[in-house]
Write a structure and sequence with these properties.
Blueprint lengths: L9 E8 L7 E9 L4 E5 L19 E2 L8 E8 L21 E13 L1 H10 L6 E3 L6 H4 L7 E7 L26 E6 L7 H4 L2 E11 L5 E4 L11 E5 L5 E9 L2 E3 L2 E3 L2 E5 H10 L8 H4 L24 E5 L4 E8 L2 E3 L2 H4 L6 E3 L6
Antiparallel strand pairs: 1-2, 1-5, 2-3, 3-8, 4-6, 5-6, 6-8, 7-14, 9-10, 9-12, 10-11, 11-16, 12-13, 13-16, 14-15, 17-18, 17-20, 18-19
GO cellular component, one term: peroxisome
Protein name: Peroxisomal leader peptide-processing protease
Family: Belongs to the peptidase S1B family.
Length: 358
């Protein structure tokens, strides 16, 4: 898949309750199989419509549609594929082959809990450190429960591509376990959700993989700039030929630690979301023929055919003075430079390095 095709793989998911005056909720999503209309997105907006919120704080692996209001309605808005450029009189000099917006109804198949992401998230983002992630004020209490961020929704929308479409099959994707820091990526989502789709729908942002954590790199951090509403959008790996593969779903575009803004985007590996979807179904891999590659071997992608620019030596480190913390730059074997306020006047500080998986 080429990078310019990424925008047609992403969508906006809008939720509302029939006969209700409440404002609809929205987020971004990824169409993982166009012909069957299979969409995955963040599960957080769906928590407003659950009939049992206690189930979200448990270790349950999935929730069925029966756990949600029977008045829940879902709409999916996406860009149609670009038409081939035409040299005839009907072509438009201002971009007649530009994709158009289309909206279809969708149904909820399940909410799945990505357990690997949940464990990694809870290990890294300790409650005592006062982490907070961007949500509406009314969601703040809910999001303090870290497990709420590990839920993802699986939807089935009306068919969003013709069978003859070259992108009608499974979206190309890649396991996070093959990633390294420094890999180039593209994030695709719709800032502000369903607001002003003509301008914001499927916006792209370039960056790199900033860091990785957890089992099979369940947590992916990137500096690709994202805004509220892009939750549920896709993070794509790109190589020199501008080929793109889906890496993960955006969990939070940014956050705060003790009221200090953190400008990194938090992403969950899509490989692990797929694995949990298969694991929580009672029949043997019922979705495999629809949108997953056959067998567990299909979840691994070789990196031999691509170059990865990654740091080979520990050139930076974590500096902790007890009261303050920050980063330092290693300029010699026994010399680290950091900001004065990080040291905070202490005669001794702790340095932590990450080198060769240690």
């Amino acid at each position: 898949m080429e990078v310019q095709e990424v925008e047609t793989c992403c969508c906006v998911v809008q939720l509302f309750e029939a006969f209700s005056a409440k404002k609809p909720l929205s987020c971004s999503g990824v169409i993982v199989h166009r012909q069957t209309g299979t969409v995955i997105c963040t599960g957080l907006p769906f928590t407003h419509f659950t009939t049992d919120r206690e189930s979200l704080t448990s270790d349950r692996r999935f929730l069925s549609p029966h756990n949600f209001s029977d008045k829940l309605k879902i709409r999916v808005n996406f860009l149609t594929e670009r038409e081939p450029p035409s040299s005839g009189p009907a072509s438009s000099p201002s971009g007649g082959n530009a994709p158009r917006q289309r909206e279809v109804a969708a149904e909820l198949l399940m909410l799945v809990n990505c357990l690997e992401f949940k464990r990694a998230f809870q290990a890294v983002f300790q409650e005592a450190d006062k982490w907070r992630f961007h949500v509406d004020e009314e969601d703040e209490e809910l999001l303090r429960e870290a497990q709420s961020l590990s839920w993802f929704a699986v939807l089935k929308a009306s068919v969003v591509a013709e069978s003859s479409s070259k992108t009608a099959g499974t979206i190309p994707w890649q396991s996070g376990s093959s990633l390294q820091k420094g890999c180039p990526v593209v994030a695709c989502g719709s800032p502000f959700g369903s607001l002003c789709l003509d301008l914001f729908s499927s916006s792209l942002s370039r960056g790199i993989v900033s860091n990785l954590s957890g089992e099979d790199n369940a947590i992916i951090l990137t500096d690709a700039r994202c805004l509220p509403g892009t939750e549920g959008g896709g993070l794509f790996a790109v190589n020199g030929a501008d080929a793109a593969r889906l890496l993960g779903l955006i969990v939070s575009p940014f956050g705060w630690k003790a009221n200090e803004w953190i400008g990194l985007t938090l992403v969950c590996s899509v490989h692990l979301i797929f694995r949990n979807i298969i694991g929580c179904t009672r029949t043997p891999d019922p979705l495999r023929d629809v949108w997953l590659h056959p067998g567990e071997a299909g979840l691994l992608v070789s990196t031999a055919d691509r170059e990865v620019m990654a740091v080979k030596c520990p050139t930076v480190c974590f500096v902790n003075s007890g009261s303050f913390w920050g980063s330092g730059v290693v300029v010699a074997s026994r010399l680290v430079v950091t900001c004065r306020h990080v040291v905070n006047g202490k005669s001794t500080v702790t340095l932590k390095f990450h080198h060769r998986e240690r």
